[in-house]
Structure formats: C-alpha cells, structure tokens
Amino acid sequence: MLRLFFLSLLWRAAATTLPEFHAVQLPPEGLERLRKMLVTSDPEPSYFYPISLLQIVTRGPAHNLAPIAKDFGPLDMDSVPTLKTFRFYFDGLIVHVHCPPNVETFSKVPEHIVGYSTRLAVQTQTWEDSFQFANMKQHVLEGTLQWPDVIQKLTALRRSDIKHPGGEGVK
Predict the structure, then answer these.
(1) Domain boundaries in the chain?
(2) What is the pLDDT of residues 148-161, one digit of tens each?
(3) Which of 2, 139, 132, 138 is CA-nearest to residue 54?
(4) CA angle 85-87-88, nearest 5°?
(5) How much is the pTM?
(6) 2, 25, 80, 154: which has the fewest Cβ within 10 Å?
(7) Residue 20: which residues within 8 A CB-CB, separation 6 or more?
(8) Would you call 15 exposed, middle or buried from its count of C-beta atoms within 10 A (0-12, 13-18, 19+)?
(9) pLDDT digits (tens, 9 = 90+) for 122-146
C-alpha cells in the first residue's frame, strides 16, 4: 500500500501541468504503465521506479518544497553509478523515486526499496547535514541576491512588533 501511495504521487506529479511539478517528467509509456498499476492496485514490479526513503531526525524550520529532479549518489559505493531521482519532501520524510529502473542495482540493497522486501530500512540524517538544509540556504541566498528589498522587508523585525511586558509596542 505504501508503494502504491508513492507511485500515485509520482503519477499525479508527472501527469499535471501545474508549474510546481515541472521537474517531474516521465516518458508517455512510463506514465501509462504507472496509471495501469494504480488502476489495478498492483505495485509490481518493485524495480519499476523503485522508491527509497530518508528520514531527517532533527527539526529544521517549517517550509514547503515542490518535487525536484536530482541526481542520487551511489547506493553501493563499490560500483553503482549515480541515478536520476525525483525527490518528494514531506516535512522530514524524503521520498526518492529512482529512474531509470535498474534491477541489478536495487537487488543489492532490497531492504532499502519500498515493496521489494518484507523488511524496509529507512536511512536517517540530521537536518544540519542534509541536502534539504543546503538547498534551503541556496534558495535564501538566491532570493536575497535577486530581490534584496523584498527579502529585507520580509525578514526585518519591526520595532512596533516588539511587545513589552506591559503589552505596549516599542515606539
């Protein structure tokens, strides 16, 4: 059921024309195969757009991020190449949907793939060492450089917003 849920998100992100999901592009045959898998509630084969999970174990600031396409590092440091992934972020749970599928790659780490094994291993990472944190810093930097006046207005603490114990704002 978990794999079907994530596959439905992938299909919806790839099928929509909403600009927030522009990074999720699938070939027409992949999109149609996903549609059929969802209609029939059949998540197999598990190596077709395999899914792995990462849990951020410390809290960062609340934020929202649309799915992105990203190169994913090797799962097996000996010989596995970098894979293209679609990355979905759910307030600390990161879902990586890998493509193109590679049975040999994922058969080496079956417990890391949703639905591939009876066990599911979820990798963990702290917020401070996460791609999510680095990516957020990069967005803030780019925003600050592109729209400095807007960022200053959004982040400036207005003196009238500071409350004294008596309840009156600072003048």
Answers:
(1) 2-126
(2) 888 777 776 554 45
(3) 132
(4) 150
(5) 0.73
(6) 154
(7) 66
(8) middle
(9) 888 888 888 888 888 887 788 888 8
